[in-house]
């Protein structure tokens, strides 16, 4: 079986049994000061050609490996246009007709130009779960870490996901507000989650395994 991964490849912990199908490389935003997942030279954002995706799906079929779930990698697959996503899902359904669930990371901005009707069609093709990195519900914290989102933009995306009949799994980062903004980070994140009512919520912890240079050198920090 051949899967043309450009390493490193990340996935949510709950997708450990899924086929990781890398339909994009890296993250199209890639400005968040707390994140170094896609900062290596080889992780410059670019979509994978449809032909390459289909070759990999054929390889999976030829291997005989049973596939029940598919996760669309990398960190920003939902930035692809509706037509590109529709073509990818159609290929998955063609080659892996027994797949029960397709999921993806999703930045709130990814859904700004996608209609509920389009998302509903993608859900009907199997894309049923979005992992949304809200990180915080506090606008000041979001500005300081250069997330490019707000309380309002995050809620709008989560509501659109719900309206399309999809489920959302939201990530909030404990510690992102530091000592100075800790209280407002916690309160406004809780406010966002109470308003959105996602099906799943994960509270993760900020860490800097490669050091704090990227975080501390940003002009807002």
Automatic annotation (TrEMBL):
SMART domains: Elp3. It comes from the Bacteria. Residues 11-221 form the Radical SAM core domain. SUPFAM superfamilies: Radical SAM enzymes (SSF102114). Keywords: Iron, Iron-sulfur, Metal-binding, S-adenosyl-L-methionine. This is Radical SAM core domain-containing protein. The keyword Heme does not apply. It comes from Kistimonas scapharcae. Its cofactor is [4Fe-4S] cluster.
């Amino acid at each position: 079986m051949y899967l043309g991964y450009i390493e490193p490849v990340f996935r949510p912990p709950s997708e450990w049994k899924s086929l990781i199908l890398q339909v994009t490389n890296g993250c199209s935003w890639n400005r968040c000061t707390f994140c170094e997942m896609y900062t290596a030279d080889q992780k410059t954002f670019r979509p994978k050609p449809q032909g390459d995706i289909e070759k990999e799906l054929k390889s999976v079929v030829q291997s005989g490996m049973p596939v029940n779930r598919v996760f669309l990698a990398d960190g920003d697959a939902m930035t692809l246009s509706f037509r590109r996503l529709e073509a990818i899902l159609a290929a998955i359904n063609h080659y892996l007709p027994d797949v029960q669930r397709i999921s993806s990371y999703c930045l709130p901005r990814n859904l700004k130009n996608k209609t509920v009707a389009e998302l509903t069609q993608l859900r009907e093709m199997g894309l049923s779960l979005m992992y949304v990195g809200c990180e915080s519900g506090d606008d000041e914290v979001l500005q300081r870490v250069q997330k490019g989102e707000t309380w309002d933009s995050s809620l709008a995306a989560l509501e659109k996901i719900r309206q399309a009949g999809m489920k959302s799994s939201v990530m909030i980062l404990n510690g992102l507000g530091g000592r100075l903004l800790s209280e407002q980070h916690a309160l406004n994140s809780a406010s966002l989650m109470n308003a959105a009512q996602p099906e799943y919520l994960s509270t993760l912890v900020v860490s800097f395994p490669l050091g704090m240079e990227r975080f501390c050198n940003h002009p807002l920090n």
